[in-house]
Amino acid sequence: MTAPMAADPKAVVFDLDGTLIDSAPDLHLAANLVLRDEGLPEISFEQARSFIGKGAGVLISRVMEAVGLGDDPEEHARLLAKFMTHYEGEPANTLVYPGVVDALARLETMGCAMGLCTNKPGAPTRIALEHFGLDRFFAATATADTLPQRKPDPAPLHHVVRALGAGSALYVGDSEVDAETAQRAGLPFALYTGGYRKTPLAELYHSYTFDHWDELPEIVSRHFARVEA
Ligand SMILES: O=C(O)COP(=O)(O)O
Ligand SMILES: [Mg+2]
């Protein structure tokens, strides 16, 4: 007798910044604490928000460009290290988007396997997840330091899907980087419109959109009903 094939779990993978948590105020503050300490002009909240998506290293490159510093690698490494010392504390000004916890709890009761795929480094990711009680939902996580590749390379997303024991997954994110990652991974993508996206919706790859987290469980059940049909 052959063993029955394990059913592919309904897997859903989430982005973090701009999707589950609104971390822009703390990222803005940490960037400005570096600039203040260096005697440099500070950046606006809108600038900081627009620099989020490709991880802390790219954020610091964009900050350096914005204040007229060059792109010297040693200077970049020094400022990035300073930024991380400011950012790695408890997320004092970060909020979970409304409805996130209820939506994740609902997906859990629906039997979804859930994972996280973020360009945020591992240490602040773990601190934020624990701080907001979100860590219990995720059976697999890829952060900026899990693999050599980062989003929009599809490798971290594939890594999380595999770690969940799934062949496919719905990816949920807020930004251009997430849309490109899902597209390159060949996975469906649910775009949260409340995050840090700058590009018009019509120009971005997406399978679903939602403006409020209480809409997501219904999208997920529709999606998997269609996939299983
Ligand atoms: O920290 C960033 O720049 C991006 O993080 P995210 O991948 O969770 O959106
Ligand atoms: Mg994001």
TrEMBL record:
Enzyme category, top tier: hydrolase
One of the protein's GO biological processes: DNA repair
Domain of life: Bacteria
Gene Ontology CC annotations of this record: cytosol
Cofactor: Mg(2+)
InterPro entries on file: HAD-like_hydrolase_sf (IPR050155), HAD-like_sf (IPR036412), HAD-SF_hydro_IA (IPR006439), HAD_2 (IPR041492), HAD_sf (IPR023214), PGP-like_dom2 (IPR023198), PGPase_prok (IPR037512)
Gene Ontology MF: a single term: metal ion binding
Keywords of this entry: Carbohydrate metabolism, Hydrolase, Magnesium, Metal-binding
Positions that bind Mg(2+): D15, D17, D174
A UniProt-annotated Pfam family: HAD_2
Enzyme Commission number(s) of this protein: 3.1.3.18
Annotated active site: D15 (nucleophile)
Pathway: Organic acid metabolism; glycolate biosynthesis; glycolate from 2-phosphoglycolate: step 1/1
Recorded catalytic activity of this chain's protein: 2-phosphoglycolate + H2O = glycolate + phosphate
Record function comment: Specifically catalyzes the dephosphorylation of 2-phosphoglycolate. Is involved in the dissimilation of the intracellular 2-phosphoglycolate formed during the DNA repair of 3'-phosphoglycolate ends, a major class of DNA lesions induced by oxidative stress.
Recorded family membership: Belongs to the HAD-like hydrolase superfamily. CbbY/CbbZ/Gph/YieH family.
Protein name (database record): Phosphoglycolate phosphatase
